[in-house]
Write a structure and sequence with these properties.
The complex is a heterohexamer, with two copies of chain A (102 residues), two copies of chain B (130 residues) and two copies of chain C (135 residues). With 102 residues, chain A is an alpha/beta fold. Chain A is built from four helices and five strands, in the order βαβαβαβαβ. Chain A has one domain: Hypothetical Protein Ychn, Chain: A. Chain C contains four helices and seven strands. In chain C, helix 1 links the parallel strand 1 and strand 2. Chain C starts with 5 loop residues before the first strand and ends with a strand. The chains are: A alpha/beta (102), B alpha/beta (130), C alpha/beta (135).
């Protein structure tokens, strides 16, 4: 039984990602979409937090939203998986439940 | 899988409606079923037929109508949220004594029970908002 | 619709600055009629939704906070409040409304609907839900 | 003092419209002038006449119309933002080939230049948004 | 020449107050309205930041928004001035310009 | 309307997730016709508005980032970017679009419109404005 957590706001602007990481359990998946994708750039202020979370949780990012904002694949923090909308759908199938951190 | 999708924001101001649409299309493409899309809060504003966006931009309200026409997706606008914000179908406008309505084809106005029913009947309920 | 599912309503925003708190409560009231297992989570600024002494009259807004007190009558009896969120905000349990329900199995004794839980406990409760709605 | 007020969010979803209204009333009560209220982004949704909020709640759209009627405040809705979101006056609806309009009394639809003019002509420009 | 900075979002949810405090100059005024008023409660996580800012800037809070959210006057951090809507208007007169931190 | 005022447009939000970046740019383009002194500030997530390589086509959205390049033709030549905001996001000046204008006083030489400034410098620039518009 695992949960897909969906975060759609920039961690620089809002507390949603930090709250989510405080709740996501080992084995859960976290998907960053919309403005949240700016959080995954290697070397940014949230790199340490995300790296720590990757120890026991899956972190994914929606590639269409990365591309829109001019963030190339190679700038994404190591360990974060890129998915497209089809992959987004698959994540909702693989996990038993979803929770959006609005 | 059977999905219900909740859309909490209006078109354009936030990306929520775009993401919900893209997700719905991707799910349908994989053979999943969209049981219902429920529009709540400012999400009700997705259901207007009076929008005329610039020619070089997408027209979200019409894309929803097309999704309903092509895939039979049930698009439900919350009546309480719609009344606060001025989204009306012809029946409701008449009942309220208003001189116009503005709902787009493929949408219907109903109660919050339709959202709960979606949560009960579907395998997954996804929320898109601000 | 014979199954019973666990529905959780997650409230993370302060009331009045946005409509989410009010319209979330409207969903909970309707949901109660569907005889599902309903619980509410108040975390982050959501804890302000059930703070006592709310009075938005000068803003011209409806004071809907009393409705939380009526949730017991709708069989909504599980209001979980995260302790860490209260503490970060300089608040304590004494700042919350005394929301209660009548326990029909205990001679209709009034019992508190609000339960303070730690973040870890809240995470475990969330993990047991079938449907999580956030506004 | 002469004020222009910019409202960037629709009614109810955010408190911005409430705050803008209360500020405008307080400024008028002190003898100041409201040169213009400009509605941009989802703020255009303040200008619908089709809203019917619950009887025990405020009706923001009507309060704006009253402010215009009582104090002659110029309420301007941005045309580009309105077209994206489905806010129409009778002229614009006709021009676009639409079968209905939904603008409330006291509001007028015009261009972004009205906002800039407000900034130039007024002593203060206040922005209310999300 | 002074600026009135207006903040309307909770500092627990968004970065607006922190950004604003990084920009407000000595002598400027900062007015907290709407959900931002939850930031002024004594003993909360932002009390230190606000106290430091009070050294050379004026911080005000809109009382109608405090009252709506059940925050009594006596819980407001020492040094922060309570104003009503009339006081809000006066602040826009006393300061030469305004800036909203949306 | 004979006065010239200093108008500053403050951009603090990423593009595409919300409409503010696009509709803010639409205001700037109109404002240019009023012959005021216009400048733009990019701070916090606003720096993403002028990052190079934006491509929202798969989202079905219009790529309006090229319009920033046209601002020079509208006599909008002052785009201030806060260095601290870039650094916190793992970005540098190389990640920004090379936005330029033609200097008619210098044989139409192309000159950069973007200026990196520290937070303290940005605060000083803001303090000199007559009208500050934020979206």
């Amino acid at each position: 039984m695992s949960m897909l957590h969906i975060v759609n706001k920039s961690p620089f602007e809002r507390n949603a990602l930090e709250s989510c990481l405080g709740y996501a359990l080992a084995g859960d998946s976290i998907l960053l979409i919309e403005d949240a994708v700016v959080g995954v750039v290697a070397g940014n202020r949230f790199a340490g937090l995300l790296t720590a979370a990757l120890a026991d949780r899956h972190i994914c990012v929606l590639r269409e939203d990365l591309v829109a904002r001019g963030i190339p694949d190679e700038r994404v923090l190591e360990g974060i998986r890129l998915v497209d909308y089809a992959g987004f759908v698959e994540l909702t199938v693989e996990n038993d439940r979803t929770q959006s951190w609005l | 899988m059977k999905y219900t999708i909740l859309v909490n924001e209006g078109p354009y101001q936030h990306q929520s409606a775009d993401t919900a649409l893209q997700f719905a299309r991707a799910a349908l493409a994989q053979g999943h079923e969209i049981f219902r899309v429920f529009f709540y809060h400012d999400g009700v504003n997705n259901g207007t037929r009076l929008a005329v966006p610039p020619k070089d931009d997408r027209m979200l309200q019409k894309e929803w109508s097309e999704l309903a026409a092509q895939h039979g997706v049930d698009l439900v606008i919350c009546i309480a949220a719609a009344q606060r914000r001025g989204l009306m179908d012809a029946d409701e406008a008449r009942r309220q004594g208003l001189d116009a309505d503005n709902i787009a084809p493929g949408f219907r106005i109903s109660g919050l029970g339709q959202l709960i029913e979606g949560g009960i009947e579907s395998d997954r309920l996804l929320v898109f908002g601000d | 619709m014979s199954q019973t599912k666990q529905f959780m309503y997650v409230n993370r925003k302060a009331p009045y600055g946005t409509v989410y708190a009010l319209e979330s409560l409207e969903v909970v009231l309707i949901a109660a009629a569907f005889e599902q297992d309903v619980s509410l989570a108040f975390i982050d600024d959501g804890v302000y939704q059930i703070v006592r002494g709310q009075s938005p009259k000068a803003l011209g807004m409806k004071n809907f906070s009393a409705t939380y007190n009526a949730l017991g009558d709708y069989d909504v009896r599980k209001l979980y409040v995260e302790r860490e969120s209260l503490e970060a905000r300089g608040l304590s349990a004494d700042d919350l409304m005394p929301i209660v329900y009548e326990d029909e199995d205990d001679d209709y004794a009034e019992k508190p609907s609000v339960q303070l839980v730690s973040r870890a406990e809240m995470a475990a409760i969330m993990a047991g839900q079938d449907v999580v709605l956030s506004f």
